[in-house]
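During the first year of the project, the team set up a workflow for recording each protein of interest as an amino acid sequence followed immediately by a discrete structure-token representation. This format lets reviewers and collaborators read both layers of information side by side without switching files. As required by the reporting guidelines, we include two representative entries from the current panel. The first entry is reproduced here exactly as it appears in our internal archive.
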Amino acid sequence: MCWIRNLKDAARALGRARMFSTVAVLTLAVGIGAAAAVANLARGVLIAPLPYPDQERLTLIWSTDVERDVQRWQVTVADFLDWREQARTFSAMAPYQQTDYNFSGGDSPERVSGYRVGVDIFAVLGIQPVLGRAFAAGDKSPTSERVVILGHGFWRNRLGSDPESLGKTIRLDDVPHVVIGVLPPGIAFPERDVDVWVPLRFDASRASRVSRSMTVVARVARPYTLQQAQTEMDILARALEEQYPASNSGTGVWVAPLRSELVRESDQRVLTLVGAVTLLLLVTCANLMGLLLIRWTDRRADLAIRTALGASRLRQLKTLLTESLLLGLSGGAGGLLIAASLTKVTVRFIPSTLSTAGVTGFSASLVGMTLAVSVVAAALFGVAPALGFSRTAPAELLRRRRSGPSIGTRRVQGALVVSEVAVALALMVASGLLLRSIEKLSGEQLGFTPNQTLVATLDLPASRYSEAGAPTRFFEGVLDRVHSMPNVVAAGFASYAPMAGSGGMIYYEPPGSSGRSGPPDLVYVRMVTTRYLEALGTTLSNGRQFDYTDRSGTPTVAIVNEAFVSRYLSGVPSVLGSELPLGALDVNAQVVGVLNDVRYVGLDTDARPEIYLHEAQFPSYSFFTPRDLVVRSAQDPLGLVGSIRSSVVAEDPALPLFDVRTMHAVIGAGLDGPRFQLRLFAGFAIVALFLSSLGIFAV
């Protein structure tokens, strides 16, 4: 057959030029491997359908606040109940909220990931357990038996994939839950590797219109469209605003496609990576095109003689193109190995809301992407020599063989080298800009001293710490033990440590604002123990820190940050002693100190108004109950981990200590994404620069 003969001719020609073929294949393997890995990543993140029936009908429903310019606001229980009852364009909707648990069924207590969900959530998604049953309507009753559905990974790793697990009881936050089902593997909603699913329980008669703690997933009913669903929800939002102006004034609704929401934090990074690797592939192809032009110049006499002896120009043109295709496929074979290795790196770009199936390691999609990139690359770098041959007469080929490369060929080679260098420099500039951004973030003033500081997390279960004063007794017991350890400078608990979570907020109406239009402001509340601010390494610009005399029953005191003073107390003659009306907490607090601003939310976020309150003055368990332990040491704080764990176990043997890391590690986690992106861009730039140097040498 003709194509077999062309393939044999191409293979013989490349075999006679082993050095050229080896360099070409290795060069292509790098470019094609990187391009295939990123193309496969882009397919998985931006194109591949979600593993749910009619996934285009799935949506997330958010509350919005026009006056605060908030587009994605969590939903109140009362609003959700009204939506579910009145909306007709949705076949089903269900709320969910992240709620991790302390699991005490193993050799030692541990933290497991979990979600509390509406009982209809699996019907919304179109998921059925592989073992047992889904939630039923009766499971949400506050008086019903507590049940749990297990994630497949939890069932496999902790229960040994035992089919007899159904009906067994596990303890979550020290509360018994009966296992009623096991989900199939690969479920990545709301995120990958969820361990346990528990029904949301709430009393509809006491549903709040103020506390926003839920996200809602819904399925648009047939034959309605997403736009029709949005129109109906807009009408419902206006009706609720008229009915409940105190809580719903300015509150709207946004119906967003589920897929776009799941990837919204990753799509731009993936597209940027696609752009970078496309430039690298173009450099690779330009480099190979230049090498093929040189090879074609050396072979012109051979091609002319073959043509003079009767070989058709079409056949020789096919042979040249087949050589390019053979090089591309050979480079693709090596590129497949490189791509499979790179998927272990690019997986970090996959959001936690998507499955990694088919995106990591060898897969049919990766093979397909590699083949496609190989063919495209072959077409790109093989077209110029083939066109050059097709447009040149045999006599002209012989004449040019004696005179060397033509002016046109030299111009093409020069243009290719210039373009290679330009692309390589563009990638280097992009890497430099990323590096500059990282340096700028790293150099921001934190407002505290992270050196020799340890952060660890624990979560008190409400089932055992609901008694007034129980959390305070636990915190003081642990801190007494920690402070007695050698080299400990100070230790304290807080609702959240800096950059470990944004923390809770309350509505705040400053004195004299009763006649002001618009909704009340939201300010952060940090509930802390006595020496927390000392352990954090921050300072006060005015007033005093909390001390051990600040107890339940004494006047409530507060420390505010400079941002709070600038926003609310700038016109007050004396900030110290000012009364803060904290209606959300049903208390007035007196300002006793002003704290220098701390970058609490992130390196790229300026300090926001914050109120610090003493945990001991709020003895009842609440959302603001501290969870993060901060320990400042005179030496390496990691050497204290074992002793700190022992201190926690001494107070509560069933309580796990988790997420133990240094404060530098906490801060560095915020830079992991940009640093990883920088390393990839720098790697691409170095490879492109190396290929460009080869192109210059070849010319």
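The second entry, processed by the same pipeline in the following quarter, appears below.
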Amino acid sequence: MAPTGIIATEHELAGTSAPTRRGPLFHRRVAVVACFAAGLTTGVAVRAIIAERAALGAAQRSHERAVEASLVQAAALASNDDDAGALRSLVWAAGALSTSPGPAALDARLLHDLAFATSAADVRVAGAAHLGEVLAIATLPGAGIVATASADRTVRLWRSDGRVLGELTGFGGAVTALRFAASAARLVTADDRGQVAVWEIPSGQAVTVFDAPRLSQLGEVALMPQGDGAVIAAGRGVWLRPLASERATLMYQGNGRAITLDVDPRGQRVASGHEDGTVLVWHAEDLEVRVLGTASATTPESTPVAVRFWPGSPDRLVALTESGGLRVWDLGGDEWPSESWELGARGLGSLAFASDGSAAAAVGDGEIVRLPLAGLPMVRRELQGPRTTAVAFAASGALFVGGRDGGVRVGQMMPSLGEQLGSRPAPVLAVQAVPGGRELLALDARGGLARFPGVVAWTAPDLDGDLGPLARALAGTDGITAAVGAEVLKWTPGDGPETPAKVESVCTAEDVVVSLAIGPGAQTLFGDASGAIGTCAGETAHVVARIEGAQVSALAASSSLIAAGTDTGKVVVFDTAGAQRWRGAILEADRAPVAEVALQADGGVIGASRGGRVARFDPRGEVVTRWYFAKCEVRSMAASEGSDRLAVGCGDGTLRLARLTVGEPEMLRLQLHRGGITWLALDPDGQTATTAGVDGRILRTPLHADALDVWVSRACSWLRSDPQVGEAAISGCPEPRP
């Protein structure tokens, strides 16, 4: 049946199944043709044909109204954060149009709405979430029970479908760690007051409660496989407390505080990660301790934030490091990792494996990362809302994700829309393609420079005084140019990783520089707060033109023209000698600052205002096309004349796409970043966008602007990620494969 509030088709009202592509309208047309074939050309037959045509038209209009009602309902559901309801309405509409096509405008509207809803959808929130930050999550092997520990001094038990099973209380402080035994239905917990407790599950009966050694330096805890002993990371050491004893015994200790630990499923090894960047492995057979290093060929030692034995492969150990590294050791080999990756993710932690070891995941700053293990490629999925803090696989394969807000979300590891090329700890201002390859240089607002992929980073240079946030940056042919107050500087890579980037002064303007462009002969052009437009040559600034009473908020240049946007909503074009060619307004009634300008091959100009209005001017300054991107504070813009596409990046993290030569509604809207899109480029064919944002991420995203089936498939996959839906039929989605 159609979702509530949607007009049902005649087949749904009758309780019959919907036809294939040759729907009721097709069969009625066959009946009309049959009348002619029988020679029924009498007045009665003619009247029957006219009535039949009227019925066909009425049925088609009713069908289109049902689809339109579904789109309206989807918008209402999305505005109430009901992602699942919105997607159900939209895939129902897609199914309805697949059986009986509607007008092209309706198809385009559906694709637009479905792409946006799918790109903006988040994993679903489980009921009865915590009142404080979720600090740890663990899964009971084979039982489909998940436990979450929180700063609200509780532990909640969940079924794998997200329903609450029970709650453990009575803790003296925030519950910071918990772990199930590998072969027994027991759970160990630790709180920030140093109290350790072991519980029978699912009864919730406490088996024992005791104080950990080194109370103020308690790290992770674990249980021996049969649940008869607790292993505790405290201080620099790892301790064993048999449940039948009242004393904890020091097993071994390192040179730095013990942060994380794990026990292999056989109880033959214990591994711990220490603050000094080492991983220690204790062997029960000979009581020896082996020291493993976390350095790789490109990065130094880094503190392990999570260590885990690989399920099904206890001779393999996996660790995440504080610097964003992933390390795998073959414990039958030497002390150096057999596999190393630099993941380019911030705030990595909470390493989790599927029960059979077939997949692994971690959480970063606002994202889930499927780790490149077990032959799977790395996948990153950004989550809207508060920062993610913990993750675990349920027995059903669903992921449980905890957040800083206390929320517990359930979903599958959906592939992201595109590829994350890298991330920075501050907003990315400009990106430059490195000549001769696919590598990119990125400059962030703190002055840090990095090359992707591979994440080779150079720190902010040591300039006189406080660098402060960079407001404007521009990618050139041999580096990235940025403005710091009135000074224009050029960044190039440093002598080695983690060394300061090289910075040289290009010139100093009369006033604060607010816009930059590459001018004729690869000269740097700047626009400042006084209205001056100048060039930098030999560390000297030369004023080329001046706009009275306005700031030059945007600049673009070609070999013969300079286009400037002002903070009063005007676009002004000069020749390279500084003579004004023409002046125009994006919209006379709109005085919002011009955020971006771009020159076209024929001398025309595209100007975009902060208020979401965009105008295309011909070479004489006449407006030939206008667009309005609703609720979009334009931060960046790109045009691809060869593919007839225009893209703008907005302050809400959405990318909007339209046709360059036609002022029609936007073709596509995708939610790509948390926060504004600060930099944007389109491939020549207009099929892929590369973006950088306030969230520090650099993404490369296929747009699929003409592929409704792609968005239907993604929406259906998202809906099926709900454990309560599983393999159940979803109206508009193809039946799942067995």
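For the second entry, the following points were noted during internal review. Residues 422 and 525 are 29 Å apart (CA to CA). The chain has a mean pLDDT of 84. Both points are flagged for discussion at the upcoming steering committee meeting.
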